[in-house]
Amino acid sequence: MLSPGDLEALRLTFKLAGTVTLLLLFFCIPMAWWLARTSRRGIRVIVETVATLPLVLPPTVLGFYLLLMMGPNGPLGQLFLRLGFDPPVFNFTGLVIGSFFYSFPFVLQPLQTSFKAVGTLPLEAAATLGAGPIDRLLTVVFPLTRNGILTAGVMGFAHTLGEFGVVLMLGGNIPGQTRVASIAIFDHVEQLDYTNAHRLAGILVLLSFLFLLTVHLLNSPRRRPSP
Amino acid sequence: MKLRSSVLCLLISLSIRGEVLQVAVASNFVATLEELAVAFEKHSSVEVQCSPGSTGRHYAQITHGAPYDLFFAADVERPRLLEEQGKIVKGSRFTYAIGKLVLWSPDPKRISDVYDLSKTDFRHLAIANPTLAPYGVAAKEVLEVFNLWDLMESRIVLGSNIAQTAQFVQSGAAEIGFVALSQIQRPGKELPGSIWHPPPHSYAPIVQQAVLLNDTPAARAFISFLTTDEAETILSSFGYGVPNVIPGGS
């Protein structure tokens, strides 16, 4: 049904979205926790504002500046070279970094909101009962914010799946490395090969639907919570 | 009486002044078309508005009713398809320019010959996607003619059109690339670096055709302006070959 090239593109898309989502959760959970707790309003507001900036730039523009920064002449590209790596353009690493910035606000926001909603009371109660910081995090905060963390992960994943502009600018359309499904669909459309474009787009939507449905099913309560 | 005629004059000039040509143009030809538009606007009161983009996207938009008056494509195929579907003004398909391909690097010492590529002292060679862009097809042909395709394949990165390909090279993300001569050789805005010109027979000519989509006097006037010496001078100053026959090419 799908050509090997399109299958490869699909596989790469899900690999990218998965990698980026895990990385984002790893970075954003501590950051959102700090943002939700800190009393230093000045720094908090600045960090919040900077974290929202990827929303302002159109993806191709964001991608263009990432290309300048991460190419062999850019500061980040130079850093990679000095450390003995290839600059993160035209390879999978580049896409991960680009998507990380692009999807950042979508993961940070829901986390911050749900951490804020926990409030101080449950934590103080747990502390009085003798729970240490790690214990409080694992047995109080995470269970209470389970839905928020899930939402953050789903938003990051879905947003990266649908990404096009950043990848177009940073990727260079290399099969198995940077040709994700959105790029492959774009190529089919440009070649007037609408049949394959419809197929790949249909399968991308279907798979994403099934994935998201599973996540939501696993996390919705079986019965309506009693009032 | 006098007042009435001057009002009439004003109305006529207003209606002409208000005339705007909407032109869909392939990304490699935008700068040239803008220059042509400036020259044309000096002779007439028609304003030419360019919408740059890839020929494939323009084609999809035009078949779905995009309101362009003229379409300057990067190839022959899309204008011919539009003609077959009866989307163009009958008999209006013509060749407006012959594109020229060059190998370019912003580094003034990098290229003097195509075999400099075989030194492989670079990470990435940018070309336009051969499945999408005529300049990409030409780049692939050149690499194959000189038996360099296999050696280059792992280094090739694909731009979705020739504009993006040049962007890859200009930003330094790719050290070297096959781009359109018209992107390097813009009068007054030449880009520095080293260039190699593939011999004319190492790739099939990049024939660029245009079609008339909306039959207006302004659009007709612009097409006939393209055959003037003034327009042909602009075309060649941007590094395009001037077609022998305008309009009505194959």
What labels would you give this structure?
A: mainly alpha; B: alpha/beta; D-Maltodextrin-Binding Protein, domain 2; 5-stranded mixed beta sheet; 38% helix; disordered C terminus
How would you describe this structure to a colleague?
- The complex is a heterodimer of chains A (227) and B (250).
- Chain A has 227 residues and is mostly helical.
- Chain A has helices at residues 4-37, 41-52, 59-70, 75-82, 92-118, 121-128, 133-144, 146-161, 165-171, 181-190, 194-219.
- The longest helix of chain A is centred in the N-terminal third of the chain and has 34 residues, at 4-37.
- Chain A starts with a helix and ends in an 8-residue tail after the last helix.
- Helices cover 38% and strands 20% of the residues of chain B.
- Chain B has helices at residues 2-17, 30-43, 55-63, 77-84, 134-145, 149-152, 162-170, 181-184, 217-225, 229-237; strands spanning 20-26, 47-53, 70-72, 94-99, 101-105, 125-128, 156-159, 176-180, 194-196, 206-212.
- In chain B, the strands form 2 sheets. Chain B has a 5-stranded mixed β-sheet with strand order 2-1-3-10-4. A 5-stranded mixed β-sheet of chain B has the order 7-6-8-5-9.
- In chain B, helix 2 (30-43) packs antiparallel against helix 10.
- The longest helix of chain B has 16 residues, at 2-17.
- Chain B is globular.
- The termini of chain B are far apart.
- At the A-B interface, helix 3 and helix 10 of A face helix 3, strand 7 and helix 7 of B.
